[in-house]
Amino acid sequence: MCDKRTYRRTESLRLTPLNRLASLKLKVAGVAEHPVVLPVFQLMSWGLVDCSCLASEETADELMQLVWQPDQRAALDYLLGSIPGGATAFQRKLLHMPPRAAAWALLGVFDMRLRSEPYKPYS
């Protein structure tokens, strides 16, 4: 069970632009938000269904490690660390995508990150 400080930190991460956008995409898709998992990671997990966008089969396993990482700030920083064109431009693109496409785009970024930098600070 997590302590109150960890819970508050995770709740504050829900207010980041990427998580608010992911929350919106989940709502549009008709998916109820999980109270413990950050919306961006839930959207990515939801997007794994019928996803042929991954270069590595291990990406799904790595995503589960990322989802349950105690330090969710580090997990988010890892995901957003090397997005071509920057995180803000990427988020603008996601805003105009349907939910499944947004999930796949996030999975593609994560997959690319795993291949380019195998060291994972969240593991």
How would you portray this structure in words?
With 123 residues, this protein is an all-alpha fold. It has one domain (16-27, 37-116). 63% of the residues lie in helices and 0% in strands. The protein has helices at 4-13, 17-29, 39-47, 58-67, 72-80, 87-95, 99-116. The two termini are 19 Å apart. 26% of the residues are buried.
Concise account of the structure shown:
Helices cover 63% and strands 0% of the residues. The protein is mostly helical.
Write the layout of secondary structure elements.
Elements: H1 4-13, H2 17-29, H3 39-47, H4 58-67, H5 72-80, H6 87-95, H7 99-116
Report the β-strand fraction as a percent range. Answer: under 5%
- Tell me the radius of gyration: 13 Å
Uncertain regions: pLDDT < 50 for 5+ in a row? Answer: none
H-E string? HHHHHHH
Report mean pLDDT, rounded to a whole number. Answer: 85
Instruction: Identify the overall geometry.
Output: globular
What is the number of domains? 1
| Helix/strand structural class | mainly alpha
Number of strands: 0
- First CA to last CA: what distance? 19 Å
Biggest β-sheet description: none
Helical content band = 55-70%
Helix count from the secondary structure assignment: 7
